[in-house]
Design goal:
The protein is α/β, with parallel strands linked by helices. It has nine helices and twelve strands. The strands form three sheets. An eight-stranded parallel beta sheet has the order 10-9-8-7-6-5-12-11. A two-stranded antiparallel ribbon has the order 1-2. Strand 9, helix 5 and strand 10 form a beta-alpha-beta unit. The longest helix is centred in the middle third of the chain and has 19 residues.
Length: 335
């Protein structure tokens, strides 16, 4: 054989099979062929419905209905035009808006003190903390039965927010390798939302990569000590994705169910909806409500994070009645 011609490839070193249930042809039927049995120390590996989750003063029973999270931006430069800094007392304004949101159907309130829109200018931890902590204290005093989440990428801000009464961490960089936020969630015993994000919208297979990135984030959080039952995922609509990516993500939301975790959907007033309809942020309520209904129909919208609570709560209840079998109190009673 010429020295330039390679020889046959070496045989592969493959794992040895374990847990094989031997065939029993003498028994016939299904026992006649070999199969595998689950190892004694292994979990089933089959995602089921997430169990109820305690978030602050409330317990959320996933699958019974969709929960609505109202957005409170304690910023001067929110993309949606609803920032509460720069006009009067932001704490007073936040409490007033929160009271309206709860009256309109909000189940949770999400407080953020730093913009996360594309191309935003970052601010320091001290400034972000100073914005959100007084608001969270006031909200938990005014609405003690409504959980408050903190929307931040900073563990320092998150820690101060939890000290002030926040009961949920909402991390828009939940897929980042840095474990600082999940370690804080584990240390403080609070649930966390892990959102998908990328520095640039580069994908080979969008849906497969979103699911894969979120799964790795879930595993990192579990390794850091966050209980599996305290994890929520968010596909990151509008984060590190083009408008076409966002629409494909909406069309494929059902794929997130393989993760076996509750899903938070945050499409509210996003630029993709504005580009579709050529509308400014404050005129995108109907488009947002449509995405709420689509997410519920896909079984991948356990929480919807929205600016326009009343419109989306109504859309959610209507979709819940069809998809989840939800009915209002007193349904069927004669009047």
């Amino acid at each position: 054989m010429s020295a330039d011609v390679p020889g046959p490839p070496a045989d592969r070193d493959l794992p040895e099979e374990r847990g094989v249930v031997a065939a029993r042809p003498d028994l016939g039927g299904g026992a006649a062929t070999p199969s595998f049995a689950l190892p004694p120390d292994a979990a089933p590996g089959l995602p089921g419905a997430p169990r109820p989750m305690a978030i602050g003063p409330r317990t959320f029973a996933w699958g019974e209905r969709t929960y609505v999270m109202g957005i409170l931006n304690i910023t001067p430069d929110s993309f949606s035009g609803d920032g509460l800094l720069g006009a009067g007392d932001p704490v007073e304004a936040a409490v007033a808006r929160a009271l309206r949101m709860v009256e309109d159907g909000a189940d949770l309130l999400d407080v953020g003190g730093a913009s996360s829109r594309p191309g935003h200018a970052p601010i320091g931890v001290a400034e972000e903390t100073a914005r959100v902590v007084p608001v969270i204290r006031a909200l938990t005093a005014a609405l003690p039965g409504t959980p408050v989440s903190i929307d931040t990428t900073s563990p320092g801000v998150a820690a101060a927010a939890v000290d002030a009464g926040a009961a949920l961490l909402n991390d828009v960089w939940g897929v980042a390798d840095d474990p600082g936020m999940v370690r804080l969630a584990a240390d403080r015993g609070v649930p966390i939302v892990l959102m998908h994000n990328r520095a640039e919208p580069r994908y080979r297979n969008l849906l497969a990569e979103v699911v894969s990135d979120l799964w790795r984030a879930l595993e990192r959080a579990a390794e850091a000590g966050v209980p599996w039952g305290s994890l929520i995922v968010d596909p990151g609509f509008g984060f590190g994705k083009t408008p076409d990516h966002n629409l494909a993500l909406l069309a494929g939301l059902a794929s997130l169910r393989v993760l076996g975790r509750p899903v938070l959907l945050g499409t509210s007033r996003k630029s993709t909806l504005g580009k579709l309809l050529d509308l400014p942020p404050d005129q995108r309520a109907e488009a947002t409500a449509a995405t709420t209904a689509l997410g519920i129909a896909a079984g991948a919208a356990d929480i919807v994070r929205v600016h326009d609570v009343r419109e989306n709560a109504r859309a959610a209840r209507t979709a819940d009645a069809v998809v989840r079998g939800w009915r209002p109190a007193g349904w069927g009673e004669t009047r």
